[in-house]
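Structure ticket #2291
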Amino acid sequence: MGLDKIFFRKFLQSAFSDTVAVKYWDGSEEKYGEGDIKFKVCMNKPISEKDILRDPFLTLGEAYMDGILDFEGNIREILESVYKNRESFLNKADIFSKVYKILPNTLKRSKTDVQYHYDQGNDFYSLWLDKTMSYSCAYFKHENDSLYQAQLNKVDHILKKLNLKEGQTLLDIGCGWGELILMAAKKYGVKAVGITLSKEQLKKANERIEENNLQGKVEVKLADYRELADKKQKFDRIVSVGMIEHVGRKNLSTYMEDVRDMLNPGGVSLLHCITAQTEGEVNEWIKRYIFPGGYIPSIRELVSLMADNDLHLVDAESLRLHYFKTLKCWAENFEGAIDEVKKMKDTRFIRMWRLYLNACAASFHYGVVDIHQFVFTKGLNNELPMTRKYLYED
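Resolution: structure written out below.
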């Protein structure tokens, strides 16, 4: 056995929690573990031992994108097998992220980073998102809810938590394609403003405003939250869904200060975001290929910043298994539309996106991330309901 194979035998034996077969580049196969084989890993060419030791996330992610590494079996379940092994590299992301320089999220850089991901094209996203074009965790109230129904549930759940009243002003930071602000205006009669850094999202959101005859009630701007705060604009309610992950660790305090400054006294804000149990950087593969500039804040970082800014936490809810189910739906929809995807994207992109969706699903199911909705108020607010009963009444 060559030195390369000796290294991979040791690496793979310690990576999975299930029995795995490995087919090497010379055609030979080996079984690691006891009992029935759950899946097969195919190594079509040798991969640099040095690169794997330096950063297995980046090295193996790129190897999969380039077809050097392949799998026979469900990719999500294979990655879950690695996550379930608490000693595997997937549970030690922070060790490897320390070798990279972290760049500050300036206004210009934030815009570039967001457009890299969200301006892949509305036609592309519409192939595998539901018809609300919601690109964030859904809320499955019932076991058999469709993805579309679950996304409607999510928007409804958030709007109820905000305790909206007719005539109030609402800001949505990172409004996506506009579903939440459209529904807020239609159902609650608020005046809603959404901001995004994606030109594609701006275009689609404006089309939807016209389709729903909501001109004058809903407005979408191509703007950064820091730009709005500089203009001293004020709102009764502020919501942000899946955006704070893009601001970067150094800007978390700026975000919280700006929300404080833009909220009217007693105002309510809801922050819906991916959370980490402890502080640490996102792995390099995700930052390089999926979310440049991304950082997942820990729960205690966010709650501490709320306290620092006289923002009172009144509710926190974990939706971790809801995001697992959402990502599972997206991954299935992506494969179901693969013939159309192939007309838009090359093989390397398709493999990258497949890995991204399945890796995220695995991470929320058995991995190291969670997702929370935090509701907090500027100063004290004695007008909010005392129980959660109102959230579950139709």
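Closing remark: The chain is about 45% helix and 20% strand.
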